[in-house]
Amino acid sequence: MKIEVRAYEEKDLPAMIQIWNEVVEEGIAFPQEELLTLHTGKQFFASQTYNAVAICTDTRKICGLYILHPNNVGRCGHICNASYAVHSQYRGLHVGEQLVTDCLAQAKLFGFQILQFNAVVASNVHARHLYKRLGFSQLGTIPKGFRMKDGHYEDICPYYREL
Fold first, then answer.
1. Which residues touch 14 (CB under 8 Å, ≥6 apart)?
2. Alpha carbons 86 and 18: distance in angstroms, whole number
3. What is the pLDDT of residues 12-62, one digit of tens each?
4. Of residues 51, 53, 49, 58, the one with CA closest to residue 80
5. Which of 25, 86, 115, 136 could anchor a disulfide with 159, C-beta 3.0 to 4.6 Å?
6. Minimal CA–CA distance to 52: which of 12, 93, 1, 109?
7. CA nearest 79: which of 67, 70, 88, 87?
8. Residues 68, 71, 74, CA angle at the centre, nearest 5°?
9. Spatial separation of the C-alpha atoms in residues 103 and 136, rounded to whole Å
10. Exposed, middle or buried: residue 18 (CB in 10 Å: 0-12, 13-18, 19+)?
11. pLDDT-derived band of residue 1, with 50, 70 and 90 as boundaries?
12. Is the pLDDT at 101 greater than 90, yes or no?
């Protein structure tokens, strides 16, 4: 399957919101608990530094997305953060890898020097393997840093990579 990653357009919002909400509803990766509506989704994505979508070139369907934004302000404003969401039908097909690779390039273009992930859930082994393969370093472990949908807590592992 061939994927094209490009900047999002307003027409992409319904598909982006559906994919984002799918991950939020699963309750095992994103810290958000509130689902996006068309109104809140438009605001949310507009507030990011950059958003991209992954499109399957055969079907022209959006199969994933990412958001990129500063991780902090001021003296720490050179560090950015990102989140990735892949539609469940396309997981395991290396869509995430293409999203992260594009994100690294975009982050550098926006002048960021470090990409940091604050809360990678320890049980998210596919993401953790991908980040390691792409040169990210794990900073440690925060015990019980993430409340799963079922209410139990899992460790989170922050990661970073210089750009």
1. 38
2. 10
3. 999 999 999 999 999 999 999 999 999 999 999 999 999 999 999 999 999
4. 49
5. 136
6. 12
7. 70
8. 125
9. 13
10. middle
11. confident
12. yes
